[in-house]
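Problem: given the chain below (326 residues), write out its structure.
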Amino acid sequence: MNKNLKQFLTKTVILVVLIFVTRFFFQFPIEYFNITLFKQTAINTVFNKIAGLEVLALVAVFFGLYYRKLIDQFDHPRINWKAAVIFLILGEIIVVLYYLIRASTNYYNITGGFQLYVVWLGILVTLAAAFIFFAIAVFGLDYLKRFIKNFKKELVIAAIITIILYFLLILFQNQWLFFSRGVSNILYELLSLFYPVNYYIEEVTPVLSIASFGVFIGPPCSGIDSMFLFTAFFAALFALDHKRINKAWYALMFVMGFIGVYFVNVLRLFLLIVSGVEISPKFAVGLFHTNAGWVLFIIYFLCYYLIIRKFIYKDRFRKSKATVKK
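Solution.
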């Protein structure tokens, strides 16, 4: 992999991690100390930010891979640490402003009308501004200017694809109940080996409880997001390298990996419930719940890809067979 492309992909990952860490930094105390004023509600939720960031990260990575030859030509300037820190601080200040705007719906009891539209606009503007400042802090202003100038059309197409994938993900999430019930049944059998577990349905949502700690196995716990992203990853992989891919091995590895994603989600929820029982409910629903999902998914996908690439690529498969014969 060329140095310039490697830096682009590395910085893309750094940007995504930076946004996740920032979200955790602000969101964890709100959840842990139950600060109602700053909590997100149906009124002040303009869009699903985690789902949006997941899709954006997916599109950005495959944008880099698809246009790798062109991106290889863009040299990355040396990091100006002073400018990076300034833009990072500005981004964090904008995030504070976002939380204040969001909290205004709770403080002033805004439920509709012109005021709510102003709040929604403020939320969108502050989130976009924070993202831009974070991107400048990671990539550098000069690099982004050159990049945008040379990829205007491609970036517009990528933005459209991101929006389409986001709405497809939200649509896919509507099928959560089928997967949630399956996850709940497996978790019940596993947890019953160690704890006395109560399993019941509350307003169609499965609930698992141990002593005073209970967990709703709702849409975020169904594994829908991970399965959708895994499918999108594999679809993009096929689009990029279909000429090199052994179709039979690819199909088999996709099915096995898809099942694996489902059970990674089961593992995540198992660890969440155990941490809630053994450590602290606040720790489980705060720190663990906020971060464990995407961390486990990234680890799983990277490890799985490193394993399957020896089988799904024709040239690698032939090379490994030749090595065995020797």
